[in-house]
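The aim of this short unit is practical: by the end, you should be able to scan a pair of folded records and say something sensible about each. We start with the first protein, listed as its amino acid sequence and then its structure tokens.
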Amino acid sequence: MPNVPADNGQRSSLHGFWSSKLAFILAVTGSAVGLGNIWKFPYIAGENGGGAFVLIYMACVFGIGLPIMMSETMLEKLNSLIVSFLVLCFIVVVGIICDVVGVAVTAAQEAPFHARAASGVFGAKKAADLVRNAHRVASFCNDVVGDVSGTLSGAIGVAIILQLFHQPKPIVAIVSTALMSAIIAAIIVGGKAFGKVFAIRQSTEIVFFVGRLLTFLQTLPRKLFPFTR
């Protein structure tokens, strides 16, 4: 638990401070590492290339998780519930969208995209590549991004509780944190359940849209800098 300094006439944080850097690191690690990381991660790593998957996973953790974690630790200083809710909604929406993409690539058929690619349709070749590598795309979207978004949304939910209640009593903190976690979990589970139905019914169009988007992002540097190779 963070220590709350005594009122000695000096300005102090509303939420107290951690007794040491080690306590903060252990608290963050405890909130981030779950049973899914312990039991599921070795199997997923073995099925998706071993060391190469671990490198990509670590790059995603540091490239996506670290900036969001830093922004989450700054929410207390901002004291803005609007910013907190916006960050929370963004993370939840990203997790649901990635889950929809992961389901869509496993449900889509590869043949329609080959037909479009033969006709020169923009993005069709990339969409066919996504379907051909559906197991890797689904593992990344559903497992990696899903675990990261779930962990970060729970952490930001706790930050929102700390902003709503100034130095709450233990029972209030426990109940409010449990309610916030339940609400976030219900939104994520409900959104993914609806998204799975939508992804199965519109799998071809979803994968085609993602293929076009990835192709556009891939060709964007050459459009912006035509004189570079």
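Turning to the second protein, read its sequence before its tokens, just as you did above.
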Amino acid sequence: MQRSARESFGWCVRMHEHVSTIRGIEQGRARFAYDKVMEANQELGEQGAQKYKSYVRKLPMYIKTNGIGATLAFIKAKTRSNKEQGREQTKDAQDRGQPEAAGQEARKKADDGKVYACIYRQLGEWLRVKQLLPAEEKELVVAVVSLRSPEYRIITNEVMAFLGWLSRFAEGMIEGEADGED
């Protein structure tokens, strides 16, 4: 059965509209990711930015292995535990009479927590911009783990796509590699 020229033209127009919509979504995602990598680069300093680059590169594999809920819980835990560990190590080192080593280790742990907090905040901002999470829910991980399965999959795909752009821009905009990557 052959299509008339009019039917073929209509199909081409619909396909072009579909491709344009996808291109628009990707461009919006890319623009937001670019802005967030610039923000992280300025906010975190050279070493923090290098860690940021390393962490956003690794997160998609964490999500594939553990799921988005567990990965967000891991990131959230890192934002808190690293600050607390830094304080504990400072106290331990001071008790051993090594205040300089304590200060360096505490700063490193606090910096890790700051990097993870930045990533966590950016993921939440993107999902709220896309209106995939309720604006009234303050805690990202709570909002995500309470979703039904279809919405959970949508969030997972959106975060994976966003992390892809973050990773690409971080790779191109942040020089060097983090020392002692976690």
